[in-house]
Amino acid sequence: MDKRNDDAVVLPTRAQLDDYRSLLKEATDERIRLRFLEKEAERLGGWDSPQAVAYRDAIKANMQRCAETANAVMEFINGIENSRLRRVFAMYYIDGWSWQKIAFAIGSHCEATPRNMHNRYLAKMNVVK
User: Which residues of 4-16 are buried (b: 16+ CB within 10 A; e: fewer)?
Assistant: First the structure.
């Protein structure tokens, strides 16, 4: 029995799964922007100006949103009880591998094998687009 069936678990959408790697990159970009803002504010002496505070808060809010969504995706993948299926999800969403590369990694020669495993699991869990 899959422990993902309880009502307390919030499943990510398919779009959130697809965006996982981009979310990590976006969070990194936001950290770079925040460091730049800090240096500019220090240079100009206006760290506490309303514009700097608003911009800083917006960056931090976006970083938080990215982290929460990425965390939900990781929890979803780590919560898959079947090891082979968990590896398929990790290789696809976290590592960014193609279906063919994943097929070879799990001992299959057909790219449809991991893709079908993936699609059946998402359908079983009612993960929506």
Answer: beeeeeebbeeeb
Indicate the pTM of the whole model.
0.75
How far is the C-alpha of 63 from the C-alpha of 124, rounded, in Å? 31
Predicted confidence (pLDDT) per residue in 88-113, tens digit: 999 999 999 999 999 999 999 999 99
Q: Which residue has the tokens 């999800």?
A: 89
Condensed to tens digits (0 to 9), the pLDDT of residues 40-99 reads 776 666 667 777 788 888 888 999 999 898 899 999 999 999 999 999 999 999 999 999
| Contact assessment for residue 33 and residue 62, using Cβ atoms and an 8 Å cutoff | no
- What ranges in the chain are assigned the alpha helix state H? 14-18, 20-44, 50-78, 83-89, 99-105, 112-124
Helix (H) or strand (E) holding 30: helix 20-44
Phi, psi for residue 81 in degrees, rounded to 5: -75, -35
**Encoded tokens for 118:** 């993936």
